[in-house]
Design a protein that fits this description.
CATH topology of one domain: Helix Hairpins
Number of helices: 4
Strand content: 15-25%
CATH class of one domain: Mainly Alpha
Largest sheet: 4 strands, antiparallel
Shape: rod-shaped
Helix content: 40-55%
Strand order of the largest sheet: 1-8-6-3
Structural class: alpha+beta
CATH architecture of one domain: Orthogonal Bundle
Length: 218
Amino acid sequence: MATLLRSRCRVPGNIRSQRFNSFQPGLVLGFISLLSLGACSAGKPADKALVRVAVQPVASVDVASSVVLTGDIQARKVTEQSFRVSGKLVKRYADVGDRVRAGQVLARLDPREQKTDLASANAEVAVRESRLHLAEQNYQRQQLLLPKGYTNLSEYQKARSGLDSARGDLAAFRAQQANARDQVGYTELFAVADGVITARHAEEGQVVQAATPVFSLA
C-alpha cells in the first residue's frame, strides 16, 4: 500500500522540469518590472508646496504719504536773551513754554545801583547848567561894557572862553546823564521778537553778569 502511494505521488522528473521552466520567465519579468518601478519612483521629483497668492482687482486708491517718526524738535533760530548790565535778578516775568511778544518785559534786575548813578549824573548836569547860566550872564555883560570902554578886550575874550567851556561841560555831562538813564532801562530785559521761551538760565536772587544768557527765545 505504501509502495503504491509513493508510486502515485512521485512526479516524473521531466514534468517538474517543465513546470520550473514555464515559471522561471514569469518570475524574471516580474522582478524586472519591480526594479523599473522603483527606478521611476526614485527619479521622480517631489511635488512642491503650493504658494498662496492674494489676488485683488486693480483700482485707484489714496495712499497716505505721512511718516511717523520720533525725535527732538529744535528751532531753526534761537536767540539768547541777556541783560546789558550786571546785577541781581529780582523778578522773572516769563518761564519755559511761555509765548511772548516783542517788547514784552521778561525779567528785571535790582536797579538801585543804576538809579544812584543816574541821580549823580542829574546833579552834575544841574551844576553845569548853573555854571553855563553864569557864564552867559558874564559874557553878555562884557558885550555891553566893551563898546563903552568899561572893560578891556582881555576880559571880554576870557568871558567868551568861559562861556564856550561851560557849554562843552554841560554837553558832556548831559551825555553821561543819558547813559545813566539808559543803564536804568537796561535793568529790564525785553523780548527782542515774538516767540516761545525754550530755556531758562537764571533764577531769582541770582547775580547775573552782562551778556550772560537768561532766556533762550525761539
